[in-house]
Amino acid sequence: MPFITLPAxxxxxxxxxxxxxxxxxxxxxxxxxxxxxxGTLESFxxxxxxxxxxxxxxxxxxxGCGLSEKPGGPYGLDALGQDIGRLVEAxxxxxxxxxxxxxxxxxxxLHYARQSMPRVRSLILCDGTSGIDxxxxxxxxxxxxxxxxxxxxxxxxxxxxxxFRGLLEGPLPDFxxxxxxxxxxxxxxxxxxxxxxxxxxALDDQDFQRIRCPVLVATGRDDFIWPIPTGEELAAKLTNxxxxxxxxxxxxxxxxxxxxxxxxxxxxxxxxx
Length: 273
Known about the structure:
There is one protein chain. By secondary structure, the protein is of the alpha/beta class. It is 43% helix and 16% strand. The protein has 11 helices and 8 strands. The protein is globular.
């Protein structure tokens, strides 16, 4: 069970992260995976295993998540993005790497890429967004307060209903049951802090223009939270992006349509080899 301590940088103290890797480090460039709000690296396990025969893949639990350290807050999206760079340096991953984020992880990946473009070889944004409007901001902040008072179970049903929209007819799939159990183990304060960080997202056109590498924006066909028009808008803001709909998926395609999502990502990586 690998852990690594990121050295203190500037105002950011040392931080211990839990991570896992698949494939051979010699299979460069590495693909780094950043999970969603409420998730852990487990969200990517099957997906990473499908890509590992041809790639070195690294996934980690973001600060406050899974088995990683739960630091005090508050912290913002820039700090979460800087954790990517700190992890890459601590693991001594040389050269540009491919970066993929899911949902909140896509937003975190955007914040890292806009500041560290030379290190990012290509970017995969899965069910991401280009901005948070006032309605969404209010929802996130109110929800964070509720979770701090009442715990994760208070939002379990609504969260998973939205994230798995269209996939819960009939017998519940195994991946839903596993995700439900994992969701309840989140630290309420950390989940709330991530929600509050997301609520403050405020990228402008110059931020998107700084991202010059090839980008794949992929959105689940049934995504209720950030639906297809949101993904199309994100792709349109980026200079070198293509847009892909993932059929049969909602907000978490690497979980809900793992093989299909892995195929799209592999094809994208091949086209930019």
